[in-house]
From TrEMBL:
<keyword id="KW-0560">Oxidoreductase</keyword>
<dbReference type="GO" id="GO:0016491">
    <property type="term" value="F:oxidoreductase activity"/>
</dbReference>
<dbReference type="Pfam" id="PF00941">
    <property type="entry name" value="FAD_binding_5"/>
</dbReference>
<keyword id="KW-0285">Flavoprotein</keyword>
<dbReference type="InterPro" id="IPR005107">
    <property type="entry name" value="CO_DH_flav_C"/>
</dbReference>
<dbReference type="Pfam" id="PF03450">
    <property type="entry name" value="CO_deh_flav_C"/>
</dbReference>
<dbReference type="InterPro" id="IPR002346">
    <property type="entry name" value="Mopterin_DH_FAD-bd"/>
</dbReference>
<dbReference type="InterPro" id="IPR016169">
    <property type="entry name" value="FAD-bd_PCMH_sub2"/>
</dbReference>
<dbReference type="InterPro" id="IPR036318">
    <property type="entry name" value="FAD-bd_PCMH-like_sf"/>
</dbReference>
<dbReference type="GO" id="GO:0071949">
    <property type="term" value="F:FAD binding"/>
</dbReference>
<dbReference type="InterPro" id="IPR016166">
    <property type="entry name" value="FAD-bd_PCMH"/>
</dbReference>
<dbReference type="InterPro" id="IPR051312">
    <property type="entry name" value="Diverse_Substr_Oxidored"/>
</dbReference>
<keyword id="KW-0274">FAD</keyword>
<protein>
    <submittedName>
        <fullName>Molybdopterin dehydrogenase FAD-binding protein</fullName>
    </submittedName>
</protein>
<dbReference type="InterPro" id="IPR016167">
    <property type="entry name" value="FAD-bd_PCMH_sub1"/>
</dbReference>
<feature type="domain" description="FAD-binding PCMH-type">
    <location>
        <begin position="1"/>
        <end position="177"/>
    </location>
</feature>
<dbReference type="InterPro" id="IPR036683">
    <property type="entry name" value="CO_DH_flav_C_dom_sf"/>
</dbReference>
């Protein structure tokens, strides 16, 4: 199927893109990598009168260190995340998640900013952002702002971005000593979206007990979520097999998955427990070095 007709715009600066957004309003859609938007256009679920292609704007892609933070441009592709030496050394959870997204075609074109702004309930990176405690920076005619990942994902395909706002970069604090992260998922056999995905970051303290933990899930609701009960089951305890099992069980108890062609709610709770257990165990192993 072909999209409905639209006017195409290719701004060459963030200011130009913001002017177009301000002028065109709700009649415009932003295009980053295109792997979320183009299928919607072809099915005519989305029928914008204007398409604003961000790919010619310099400075919106790339990965760099900035003091105690890692900065990722919103137009950075999944493939770049996957292959980044910097990320593999500092934040291996991100390449681990990126290499599980779709197929090579999707990873070569899809972008981190596009994925986060689209807020698909089965996408991998939203859960990773929650586990990392990332900050998302935006630009708009009213000025930029910083949105915590915990406040960014609001509902089904809905983020905290305002209609005239553009996601420009993602910032993640460098992890401290004895910190490890991991991402695990059960992919949909066709789309490779997560039936269940779990992103976990843990820090070990004195006596090798867990001093902090962030556990986030994707694929089991209308948006990616953190699971405080699973985090609480880890903090203050030695991360042995029994503790990890207890935390994974809490994660499964904290979701209300919907039955679909891939399985009923009971099966998805079982998957949640298994996948979360794997992610926690791998995060702990990395924290131990």
């Amino acid at each position: 199927m072909y999209p409905a007709s639209f006017d195409y715009h290719a701004p060459t600066s963030v200011d130009d893109a913001l002017r177009l957004l301000g002028t065109l309003g709700d009649d415009a859609k932003l295009l980053a990598g295109g792997h979320s938007l183009i299928p919607l256009l072809k099915l005519r679920f989305a029928r914008p009168a204007h398409l604003i292609d961000l790919r010619r704007i310099p400075g919106l892609a790339g990965i760099r260190a900035d003091d105690d933070q890692i900065v990722i441009g919103a137009l950075t592709t999944h493939r770049t995340l996957e292959r980044s030496t910097l990320l593999r050394g500092v934040l291996p959870i991100l390449p681990e998640a990126a290499e599980r997204i779709g197929d090579p075609l999707v990873r070569n074109a899809g972008t981190i900013g596009g994925s986060l702004a689209h807020a698909d309930p089965g996408a991998d990176l939203p859960a990773v952002m929650l586990a990392l405690g990332a900050e998302l920076r935006t630009a708009s005619p009213r000025g930029g702002r910083t949105i915590a990942a915990d406040d960014f994902f609001i509902g089904l395909l809905t983020s905290a971005l305002e209609p005239d706002e553009l996601l420009t970069e993602i910032r993640v604090r460098r992890p401290g000593p004895a910190t490890g992260g991991a991402y695990a998922k059960r992919p949909h056999p066709a789309s490779r979206f997560a039936l269940v995905g779990a992103a976990v970051v843990v820090t070990l303290g004195a006596g090798e007990t867990v001093s902090s933990a962030r556990v986030a899930l994707t694929g089991v609701g209308e948006r990616a979520i953190r699971v405080p009960a699973a985090e609480g089951a880890l903090v203050g305890r030695a991360p042995d097999a029994a503790t990890i099992e207890r935390a994974a069980t809490e994660a499964a108890a904290g979701v209300e998955p919907r039955a679909d062609l891939q399985g009923d709610a009971e099966y998805k709770r079982h998957l949640t427990r298994v996948i979360t257990q794997r992610a926690i165990a791998r995060a702990v192993e990395r924290a131990r070095g």
